[in-house]
Amino acid sequence: MKRHHPSLISLFTGAGGLDLGLEQAGFQTLLANEIGPHACETLRQNQVLNSLKPTEFDAWFALQMGQRCYKGTNEVLSEELRSRIRSSLVDRSYLRGAKIVERDIRALSASEILELSGSRKGDVDLIAGGPPCQPFSRAGKREAVKTDTGKLFKDFVRLVDEVRPRWFLFENVKGLTLTKAPLARIHCRVCRETNLVKFEDWELLQVEAEKSVPCYRCGAQNASVSWENKSGGSLDIILQEFANLGYKCVHTILNAADFGAPQLRERLFIVGSRDGELFEWPSPTHGKSHGPSQATLFDLNDLQPWRGVREALWLNGHWKYGALKKEAVLWVKNVVRPHDEPVTWHLDRPSPTIGAHQGAKLTIAPIGVPEAQLFRQQWHSLGRRQGDTPPVFVEHEYLTDLELLKLQTFPENWYLFGTRMERAFQIGNAVPPILARVVGAAILAAMGRVRELSEVQTKAV
Q1: Annotation: CATH topology of 7-176+248-284+432-447
Q2: pLDDT one-digit tens code per residue, 93-128
Q3: Fewer Cβ in 10 A, N or C end of the chain?
């Protein structure tokens, strides 16, 4: 089927950050798969808003505010939500024609994807997604590919294999490059080939250490297996699975702050080409003025400075506190950290990474945070607990949905379904659209579609 825009199949879609950025670059989402009911409702309601007439808006908004998750919402914030969503109804277009499939990816077949998207095997331009990253994160238990959620990458690989897109984009946390995993290699005594063990055999060897694995090249049965516990081993395993499909892969870590997001957020990206096309990573547009930065590989004189939180959120004052003084800070409420890691951040620098849990606890403290409270929270490596000292009063206000959306570079009129915590989780789990957009543009450049798509607008909806 001939389409005006390159086609996109989205997996592990969440609240749609990756899709939004890729569509801003010029892709068209045909199908989005997500298991979370609140995230799926977020996607569906944004699709409703694409075709909603201004005369229908008040009834739609009243219905949303009547939902249990929005009951008790502050009147100021309710009016802010109404205003920002209604202001640009006619300009909305993202995910307009996408099929939203609410299902566990393990129960999703390639044939169903192709049927629902109106595609044939080999015709899809891009499959993109980020499997749950907790098993690979430094904050998790580092169980990596051995956990059930860690093994969800297999279904991403499975669908890439069965749909055979021209490109795939795999996104995950930086910790995937650090996580240790036992690598198994086959050494063939016949053809002298040495290869990483395929994941399905790797799993069996975890249970049956003496299991015989034949050589993948010549089929010899007397191949030997050696093991190595290696940092970044999980990444090696995943890259090998894609290479086994015949995809040429490149990977790197990109920081959203280096591309204009007011947030320090490093993410791992793997890009694979079915046809061996040459891909070049995007060059940073922003950089840190002093000290190390990913952007130091480039001439900092050609870069704009990193965007700070004050500039992005409160250049004209805070909705509750008005003009913010120099002692105002971002504060992550009641989250404990080692004594050498901060729990407050200056407003003239980018925010810390807005994670799923941290985003729900991120606040603005207009007169700062007392030392006694900082002492309570930074306990881990000093052998004390937060409960060892009494609570300390801190004047603060949680960041609103709009403020978190801005830190993540979502369109300001993006609607979120769920309780305040659930909405913060959706935002925190997302890829910043501005980062997805530059990676998507680089894929389009490798596809030779830049000139054709040069008129695509990249403004937020």
Answers
A1: Rossmann fold (3.40.50)
A2: 889 989 999 999 999 999 999 999 999 999 999 999
A3: N
